[in-house]
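2024-03-11 09:14:02 INFO worker-7 job=invfold-0412 stage=load source=structure_tokens
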């Protein structure tokens, strides 16, 4: 078995693989993974905290 490789996908490759990526996410959550998404945060808000 080969070691997995993690790499950034460009927009075209992401679009081409969106179904497979969705299946991975769905499977991970179905098996107990906790997945969180955050909207972009304005740095001026976080700097003033």
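2024-03-11 09:14:09 INFO worker-7 stage=emit residues=49
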């Amino acid at each position: 078995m080969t070691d997995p490789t993690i790499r950034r996908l460009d927009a075209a490759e992401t679009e081409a693989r969106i179904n497979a990526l969705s299946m991975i996410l769905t499977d991970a959550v179905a098996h107990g993974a906790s997945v969180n998404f955050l909207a972009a945060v304005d740095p001026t808000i976080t700097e003033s905290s």
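2024-03-11 09:14:09 INFO worker-7 stage=report msg="Residues 29 and 35 are 7 Å apart (CA to CA)."
2024-03-11 09:14:10 INFO worker-7 job finished
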